[in-house]
Design a protein that fits this description.
The chain is mainly alpha-helical. It contains 6 helices and 3 strands. It is flat and about 55 Å long.
């Protein structure tokens, strides 16, 4: 869950088991290619549903809808509905979503740095 110093700094009432369980739940939700791509694109700018779908090649309407709902439920994106006819809906990252984007960018950087190593290991395996 964290380093020893981070855990020691938590208040005594901190529920570490619940925090660990929640972390596992969130990771299970967001650890898919669509969620990562949605976070990456919304990190660039606020987008409407159709813009997002067009930007993410190959995602179905249903899959985009499911992932947007999951990301909103986990507090990673904001969904803003404007009272127009038809209603205009925009999606943007929350502060937590923006922090997740930094993590995703770190994973992408790690992949680029170790791509040769990973490919070589896969050829051997």
């Amino acid at each position: 869950m964290g380093t020893r110093d981070e855990i020691a700094a938590l208040p005594p009432e901190a529920d570490l088991a619940r925090a660990d369980s929640l972390a596992r739940e969130i990771f299970a939700d967001i650890a898919n290619k669509w969620a990562f791509l949605i976070v990456e694109f919304l990190g660039q700018r606020t987008m409407r549903f159709s813009e997002l779908r067009d930007s993410i090649g190959g995602i179905s309407h249903k899959m985009l809808t499911q992932n947007l709902r999951m990301l909103e439920r986990n507090g990673l994106i904001d969904r803003t509905v404007y009272p127009t006819i038809p209603p205009r809906v925009e999606y943007s990252l929350t502060e937590a979503g923006d922090a997740l984007r930094a993590v995703v960018d770190g994973i992408c950087g790690w992949t680029q740095q170790y791509l040769g190593h990973i490919e070589a290991a896969r050829r051997r395996g």
